[in-house]
Every structure is written in structure tokens, then in C-alpha cells.
Design goal:
Pfam families: Formyl_trans_C, Formyl_trans_N. This protein is α/β, with parallel strands linked by helices. It has two domains: about 190 residues, 3-Layer(aba) Sandwich (Rossmann fold); about 100 residues, Methionyl-tRNA Fmet Formyltransferase, Chain A, domain 2 (Roll), CATH 3.10.25.
Length: about 325
């Protein structure tokens, strides 16, 4: 049986499938971005891949590099995990069974970049893996396989990536044997579906005046670990909050602190912050330039009740 080539830019999402293909003797090789080689190269070599089985793609010359490599592999299909560059049609048509994209979000709802972030950020009950044939219409080709995975309450980005990576292995046998596609995504639905972008500084910043406690917790989880947490400011210092959890606290009757105000701080429980609708969030772990700290450690460093996390906009 002809081999499958894999293009990836993520170890947790792609490597379980890479190992599954290798165990079946079906792995032709793995292409990675040269800029990601520090994280991905040694684990691939540890799996036993060597020589022309690993290709490092360089921006500016990757199309020619990929074309030459694929010619040598004689692979019948290419499976893609998190590749950031648009693959031209002549490459998509160059292998017999084409290119399949493993998109870790529901289509067409979560077209575009980093659907894992947006599914956690939007407090979705499920994350989806959608495998589809790649065409010139990005994230719009025929769907081959799809499955949902419940998101665990409080689950962060890194943990969900690990579970989705193992979910992808469930698709391997069906994809190897399946020749029938599910109905193609309706073109009108694609046209009316927003394109998600990679979150930037604005999307990663906590807005204490507008976001609820649940929304803030979801943002924190979505930003941990890939984006080093959700951004907040206190004492003119930027911090990245990596973990928060709901907190119950009784304040004096009639006291309604402004969202973002630290309403409780001590060495045992750490920091508890007021949110909208008289709800509260406990700050468990955050990152500053000086290191990673618990809420309790910040209290010991001088952060007191009454101080405020602020919005910059």
C-alpha cells in the first residue's frame, strides 16, 4: 500500500496520528516548518524517522521543497495538521488521493485560524475535529470525517490539544478505507460565515467592565498555554493570568465593588477579584516578567485588597 505523508506544525495534535501511521507501516514522512524544528525535530527522530523522511520547510522556498520531497516519497495522500501557509492548487492535485486537512473545529462555524482557542473562549460545550479534502476554497472542501469531543469544565488550551490529538487517531482506519465523502459544505453557508483570525493583543486582554466572570475564565483557559495567559494590568504592570476559578465571598450589604477590584487577599486563599453581576474570580496562577506566581505569593509581595486590575482601552 502506498504511503501517507504528513505536514504538521504541532506535536500534540499531529504526533499521535504520525505514530499510528508508522505502526501500520504507512508513514511516508513528515514535513515541518523549519522555524518549528527546535520543538518537533527531536521527537520525530526519536520515533525512528530519519534521512528524507523528515523535511524542514523554509518560508520563501517551501513549495519547491515540498514538491521535490513528495516526488521522492511517492505518497498517495497528504494529511495536514495546522499548516499556516496556503497550499497552491497544483500541489493539491499532485497526489492521487489529494490533501486532507485536520481542522480542529466545526466547519463552517469555525473557519480560519486557531479554532481551538475560539471554541474554549466561546464556552462551547464541544470541540470538533473536521477532516476535509483541501481545495482552493480554504476550509471549504468536502468533509470526510467529523466527530465532537466534550470540553471539560476548566480545561485549558494545552490539555484540549492533547485530547484532540488522540481523537484524530480514531479517524485513521476510516480515512484509510473511506472513499465516500459526507455532503460538501454549502457554499452559501461559507459565504455567510465569519473567518476566525488568530487572537491578537485585543482578543487576549481581559475587559473587566464588559466580560462576565465566566467569559474571563474561558479567556484565561483559551490563552493557556499557547498565548501565555490572558492579559491584565495592575500597578502599571502587565501580567498574564494562566489560571482562575470561580469564588464565593460575602461582602457587606450594599457594597458593589467595581469589576477588576481585588476584594480579598491573604496568604492562604490568595487574590479574589470582583467581576460583573456581583460574581468573583480567584486568581490561581499568573505570569509576570519576574516569573510565575500564585495569588498567595502576590499577596506576600504586597498586592492588597482594594487594588484594581485595569482596562487599557
Amino acid at each position: 500500500m502506498n504511503k501517507i505523508a504528513v505536514i504538521c506544525n504541532s506535536d500534540s495534535l499531529a504526533f499521535p496520528t504520525v505514530q499510528a501511521l508508522a505502526s501500520k507501516g504507512l508513514l511516508g514522512g513528515v514535513a515541518i516548518l523549519e522555524r518549528s524544528s527546535k520543538a518537533l525535530l527531536k521527537p520525530l527522530q526519536a520515533m525512528g524517522l530519519s534521512g528524507n523522511q523528515i523535511l524542514q520547510l523554509n518560508y520563501g522556498s517551501w513549495e519547491q521543497e515540498l514538491k521535490q520531497w513528495m516526488t521522492g516519497l511517492d505518497a498517495e495522500a497528504v494529511w495536514v495538521f495546522g499548516f499556516p501557509w496556503m497550499i497552491p492548487d497544483h500541489l493539491l492535485q499532485s497526489v492521487r488521493k489529494g490533501y486532507l486537512n485536520f481542522h480542529f473545529g466545526e466547519l463552517p462555524k469555525y473557519r480560519g485560524a486557531d479554532p481551538i482557542f475560539w471554541q474554549i473562549r466561546n464556552n462551547e460545550p464541544y470541540a470538533s475535529l473536521t477532516v476535509h479534502q483541501m481545495t482552493a476554497n480554504i476550509d471549504g472542501g468536502p468533509i470526510v470525517w467529523t466527530k465532537q469531543l466534550p470540553i471539560i469544565k476548566g480545561e485549558n488550551y494545552g490539555l484540549l490539544c492533547q485530547r484532540l490529538g488522540f481523537l484524530a487517531v480514531e479517524a485513521v482506519n476510516e480515512l484509510l478505507n473511506n472513499t465516500q465523502y459526507l455532503p460538501i459544505v454549502n457554499e452559501n453557508s461559507l459565504a455567510n460565515t465569519a473567518w476566525e483570525k488568530k487572537p491578537g493583543n485585543k482578543e487576549l486582554a481581559i475587559n473587566w467592565r464588559e466580560q462576565s466572570a465566566d467569559e474571563i475564565e474561558c479567556l484565561i483557559n483559551a490563552a493557556n498555554s499557547k498565548y501565555d495567559g490572558a492579559t491584565a494590568w495592575i500597578k502599571n504592570t502587565e501580567v498574564r493570568i494562566l489560571e482562575g476559578s470561580p469564588a464565593e465571598i460575602q461582602l457587606p450589604e450594599g457594597v458593589m465593588p467595581e469589576p477588576g477590584t481585588i476584594v480579598y487577599a491573604d496568604a492562604l486563599y490568595g487574590l479574589i477579584v470582583a467581576c460583573l453581576e456581583n460574581r468573583f474570580l480567584k486568581i490561581n496562577i499568573l505570569h509576570m516578567r519576574e516569573g510565575y506566581f500564585s495569588g498567595s505569593k502576590l499577596f506576600q509581595m504586597g498586592i492588597k485588597a482594594g487594588e484594581k486590575f485595569i482596562n487599557l482601552n
